[in-house]
Amino acid sequence: MVQTILGSGGGIGLPLAKELKNYTGNIRLVSRNPKKVNDTDELFPVDLNDLSQIGDAIAGSEVVYVTIGFEYNTKVWQKVWPPFLLEVIDSCKKHNAKLVFFDNVYMYATSAIPFMTENSPVLPPGEKGKIRARLHEMIMNEVERNNLTALIARSADFYGPDNKNSALKMMVLDNLMKGKKAQAFGDINKIHTFTYTPDAAKATALLGNTGDAYNQVWHVPTTKEKLTTRQWIGLIAQELNKEPRIQAVPTWMLHLLGLFIPIMKEFPEMMYQYEQDYVFDSSKFEKRFGIFATTPKEGVRKMISE
Prior knowledge:
With 306 residues, the protein is α/β, with parallel strands linked by helices. 36% of the residues lie in helices and 15% in strands.
């Protein structure tokens, strides 16, 4: 049977395809312009905004992984995410496929951010978080009714060699390499844990191929080293042999930048995550599988070298 990745070209979809070859030789890559990761991959070009094509993309699948990332815009998310996921759920039910949904932490309550677990309260303060909470509920409601076999693999903010859009890559690594100051949101002296994308992909593939992992939420392996944002920047600067010069980006500056760079308008509502400690706990996964996260030093080295 086929294992299918919806959104195969992104920062998680790409390393996930590499990992799935350890479990199956039948991998279907679905995106607008899919490219082979493994020699035997089946390419299924489709615009996933066209809901009428989702059923065909899922047909014949044993497991469906949702790793797609729609445009980072609240209005787009409100319009696109719920009907997309509803169609995915309905198609998985129709074709008797299991669903693995790759998720973030936006739905958690503000009070949970200093130490997030799979049992943290779902009480998002922002609009994007409310959309993620709705997606969480859509999946788990179907699971509770025994209509769907599914799991949610959740990640912290991530970084890695396959991820060009992470904050550590765009605002820190790229800037330092250009001789500019690293930029950072919020309080740079607060702890901020990051998930290394190859770790997330390895865990997601393993979860998708473990029968008793379904019908629950999992936090993928994330470093236990409680580094501050300043220390993460220091690690990257050290690896580049650069001085760790930093420019803090306060909320008012994001509003100002949003006048010229539209995506910057999307960040102020998320600033609460950067103004307090942000610790993402993956003990549940580690205890079940005995697999731990790549160390920050090694992850940074690989992000830069690869």
